[in-house]
Amino acid sequence: MIGNSWDEKLAIIWQSPGFKKFIQKINHEYATKTIYPPKSHIFEALKLTPYEKVKVVILGQDPYHGENEAHGLSFSVQKGVKIPPSLRNIYQELYDDLKIQPAQYGDLTSWAKEGVLLLNSVLTVVKDTPASHKKIGWELLTDYIIKILNQKKEPIVFILWGNFAKEKMKYITNPQHLVITSPHPSPFSARYGFFGSKPFSKTNSFLIKNGLKPIDWQIK
Prior knowledge:
The protein is α/β, with parallel strands linked by helices. It is built from nine helices and six strands; from the N terminus they run αααβαβααββαβαβα. Strands 3-2-5-6 form a four-stranded parallel sheet.
């Protein structure tokens, strides 16, 4: 389904009767409603960041629900689409932390290619209806992804913004990994601890300390 190492790592999920039945339900949703992202981009995060390349996980909730916004990467929007408020705040913190100038667009593909798995907990959404596909089955897959990344021998940084993401901490039990938490970058909560949390420099310091190449956070 993915075309890289995730296929083997997730084979037990792909082949399970429950997930196959769930995918039929998702296909029906696409056939009868307007669903985002486009079907070809549902697994974009996994396609761009193979298992062995994952150094960092930034966990989102569900895709943006506006037209042409979602393209399979958490917090990211396609070029030409207005940058959402949460991503603007992420860019502001990136500048305050590493003095990287905010990009003029919101496509975070370059991060994914650096080894940042931009994973939403729920991978699809009905147009203009946030959280519409929450708890219908995607969590079976995405929780499992976190669990197998937790088993990875190489250290990983898990960046969990907001209470929804923090719920996944229970799956991150390997002490060699670093978990960075803060309030969500949403305008409603960013000023309560997201700003000033320095997740980008903390991530790179940890990677360097463990003999790994740091992330180039410059948006390209």
